[in-house]
Amino acid sequence: MQIEVAAKALKELGHVTRLAIYRQVVKAGHKGIPVGEIQERLDIPGSTLSHHISSLASANLIEQRREGRTLFCVAKYEHLDGVIHFLQDECCIDETC
Which CATH number goes with the domain that contains 37? Predict the structure, then answer.
């Protein structure tokens, strides 16, 4: 993973509201969570929630899926794994034993 991609993901997750939203999406698993449910759980105005979801999607952390009239947010776990691995890949590499 390129440093710019990891930095974008970490920047978006560095906002308290976006991190709270992302945690709800990750908890929901692969089936995702309806946007309305996130709004209820976190008590966020719809326009604000939409803005934050857009930011998370632009960082490739979530994707959205429509089922009828319901819009679901689904975590892109492979990207999350990539960010985590980016942070851990060179752990202790400069340490001499």
Answer: 1.10.10.10
